[in-house]
Design brief:
One of its GO terms (molecular function) is phosphatidylinositol-4,5-bisphosphate phospholipase C activity. By secondary structure, this protein is α+β, with helices and mostly antiparallel strands. It is built from 13 helices and 34 strands.
Amino acid sequence: MLFVDLNLKFKKIALQFLRLLLVSSSVYRRDNKYNHCRIHTKSEGGRTKYYLIDQTCFDSIYDLIEYYKMNPLKSPAFEQILGFPVPQQNSHLGKPWFHEKLTRQQSEDMLKRVRMDGAFLIRHSDHRTQGRKNYAISFRAGGKVRHCRIQVEGGQFQIGSASFDSLTELVQYYESNPLYRRMKLKYAINDDVLKSIGEDPDESSIYYHAVYYTLNEEKPERIACRALYDYNAMRADEMSFIKDAIISDVEKHEGGWWRGNHGRKKRKWFPANYVEELEDSSSQSDEQQLGNLQQGSIDLSGILVETHSLPGNHMYLLSIFPRQAQGNDQIGRPALEVAAESLQEILDWQTAIEEVRYKLETQQQEDLKKEQLLDQQQRVKRIAREMSDLVVYCRPVPFLLEGVESGKYYQMSSFVETRIEKIVKNKYQAGMFVAYSGRQMSRVYPKGQRMDSSNYDPLPMWNAGCQMVSLNYQTGDKPMHLNDGKFKQNGRCGYVLMPDCMFNPGFNPMDVSTHTNSRPITLSIQVVAARHLVRPSRGICSPLVEVEVCGIDADWAKFKTVSAKDNGFNPVWNEGCEFEIFNPELALIRFVAQDEDVFGDPNFIGQATFPVTSLRAGFRSVPLRNQLNEELELSGLLIHVEIRSSYGEDEELYTTVRHLKHSITQLTQQMKDATVGGQDEDGRIMDQLSSQLQQERDALRKLTKKDGLRKRQPNQKVSDRRVGLTD
């Protein structure tokens, strides 16, 4: 005898009775007596049948239960029609994670004090379904407090598409399986837990919509300190540390005692006269591989590493002595000392340092051998080293924006992403950098702080003329998708010519008035349908499509369809939009299929990115690719493309309208910045900007009314060109 997995349509009623089954017996009550009746199974034609008596068989337990709710069970001792199922006991009552009288705000206040992903609690939800109470689980994930509703239907607790017999079973399942991305439930939060590990509330952890702002909010100043002397704690709320220890997140208090974090000690007190404040090194982070995490550097070539135990506090010390401090019998002051509570941890660090030192010394020996080999070849082949050095493609030189005109074609400068972003996003320096790129080579590489191998946006660099923009190819994200779309041109050979507009004197990607040779277009995209859209995890998806134009700042626009409910096989949208693209030679168009989950977060399904100049009009099939730009079998979109010139019959009129729209956008952004930044205390700036904005809008309205120029804004749906399809 066995139970089979039920379809979703059976779960509302049939699972209520399945909870009453003991192995293969159904249980019900009559005249204060419990009676049991075995449910049998047999196979007919390869299908399982369920029955109580041989003459009456059913395809499912659901059909069996429904039949005996209308027809009586008969035996020599009784006749009985099945009624209501026995209610399930509330096994979640008394659990440390369940709070019966807790509001959403109170749950957020509790979770803000526990800065650990996986902290959670379950409470009653304010939302009711047909008068029944629902539940909600509040948890921390990615440093944010999030909420997810747990619906109660037919005695089942449903979260997303998963159903559970009880809240206890739900918690046990998500303690072993991810609930949100890679987060599993770990720490049940209640008042007792907060008393032992609770910290100051983290006000930045609440996940809310971006339209809510907290103005003029003052946050306590947090600094870091270095210990000047060793200190042993006298009380439980104090911390112990050794000389040169770094104490972070320090809060200054009166009375000569401060609070901070050191190692596993959180929010502990220590004497202020035992430490010195560290200067903020954020301004130097661009020059360091690890940013603010890097406190210095040590040359590992020729170092001496020693380990020994510290008497009295059961800790172990690792000392690194520099090369210049070593002598025959004397060892100078160590360059670095690190302590740990575990001997194994110290030995692991020693092994890692020795391996790096060995690799460094081996590399130095290999470089020396290569140098000797080159000298030998120079003597044998009688080729001067100076002559060989002339045969190079590029010569690295420091970048000087003032010396652009004197640069040579074979000179190349390298930029970390943070430095080049300050140049290409500056309206005045961007034009000068375009002129520099016309004479010399430039290379951009990711900053060292990207320890997760994430990528930066390469478009501003390309638009400013950077010839080589390096990305982390092992990470499949939007910048890599844009890179794939950019180099689909020219037969995917890896080389793309700069557009002609970038060679115009005075061209500036941040100023549309300098794009004199560009031919603006109006691009109409109709997202008709799709096929075979499958979410990465199991389950039915409700897909939507996002269409995005990426290029110069004036061309960025996005459109999103509605979601097709529970249809990833052949969804139909038949929705459209129009984009006005001022410089199509620098623009890319990106299609992204997504599935929105119960948390409101989009889940990636597939994408495709193309240069706008490569698009062709008509009905087009768009094959989708995964995050690593590998083709997804059978997955694709059906779209209709229409391309027409934005100039129409009057180029001068269109240019004027375009400049007016750009001016309106800039004024709107200035008003927003003045409001959010609190720079307009007396309202004068806002009045002035409002007056200018109204004048620009009046001028635009007169032009469009006079000449009948009707241009749709990006993201506006097209209602008069629907494609005649039916579901």
